[in-house]
Structure prediction request, 457 residues.
Amino acid sequence: MLSKTALLSSLIAAGASAQQVGTLTTETHPKLPIQQCTAAGSCTTLNTAVTMDANWRWLHTTTGSNNCYNGNEWDTTLCPDGATCAANCALDGADYPGTYGVTVSGNAMTLKFVTNGAYSKNIGSRLYLMASDSTYQMFKLLNKEFTFDVDVSGLPCGLNGALYLVEMDEDGGLSRFPTNKAGAKYGTGYCDTQCPHDIKFINGEANVDGWTPSSNDANAGAGKYGSCCHEMDIWEANSISAAYTPHVCSVDGQTRCEGTDCGDGDERYSGVCDKDGCDFNSYRMGDTSFYGPGATVDTKSKFTVVTQFVTSDGTDTGSLSEIRRIYVQGGTVIQNSVSKIAGITESNSITDDFCNEQKTTFGDTNSFEKLGGLAAMGGAIGRGMVLALSVWDDHAVNMLWLDSTYPTDADATKPGIARGTCATTSGVPTDIEASQGNSQVIYSNIKIGALNSTFSS
Prediction:
């Protein structure tokens, strides 16, 4: 998996994150209930909700409505340094449907790709599930499964509807960083294994030091610091390709990085996190007819995705040994595709053996094993992780790593290069933002519970 640093709003009003709390727009979290199930298949409802990530929100002066961040640059008068910026600037509430194209009906949430609001144009979104008005819902999934329904029929080449877990602080960093006054209520504290530098506030301070505006994204930039943590990509997909991918780090919990630890550029494999991960993409693993329009898992209509986190001893405290994938569509249970690549044992799940064989066969650097493999992933899953739900386009490499031939100059017949049927010229953000603005993804019917308790087999 490649960088998610393109995950930014293009709010004309100013899409940025802050640490003080504004009062110009009331923050009301849309309700998105989920279910918790027992081994008997009996489920109870959890009254959860969602909040918008801080990076999308309006950032303005604490005493008025002047923007602290415009386009892809900071106001250097208000934000000469990180601490001063945190004191001067406030993060405000969100108009979820009007500004961000986020709507909820029952247990289903629709994320629109491009939303033209009264005063803004918004691109993509990232939200987190809340247990209360001020805390994220923490998922501890060892020896359990995570299930949801998804409709990706409205996601073309170049887009990614991602549902994943990251090891963020339960309160968004509110207690660890006194200068953070906004906390989880306003979507603060994001991190992932890409150690993204586009996060505007990290550890309660603005990421203004060394901030460089993006050359190809009018709303993005990168600061000196990154924000790292373990990441479990349960679902990264569009209508063409899908992947699930564990990523691990040598650090636990949200951690600010700088320099080599961030693993940027040529130091990709020297950082504290495994940016590549160990992915299972059915197309990349040799089954080109399993997922897509009219395929075994037919992306023209809604389907159910089940992800099981199996432990070595079958207990909730055991070591993570396997991550299994099952689909359900039209009342039929569909086992995950089996790998068909020479040199990789036929398998349909992620294990350490699978990952090691895949890395060797594809000629990829095995930082997943170096940084602890499934045992490290299980550590984070056991401690508790936050659920992120998003839709985004990719200003770095046009999402070709998910749905096309990547690297584009490599031989597509070489194992691991072909990831989907999208053209290598597809996914250019300026193109799809103009021509595919009505794209959307719908997530619904989220369930957690004991193995085989959240779906009918």
Observations:
- DSSP finds seven helices and 32 strands in the chain.
- The domain at 29-54+96-450 is CATH 2.70.100.10 (1,4-Beta-D-Glucan Cellobiohydrolase I; Chain A).
- The CA atoms of residues 346 and 414 lie 18 Å apart.
- Residues 352-362 form the longest helix (11 residues).
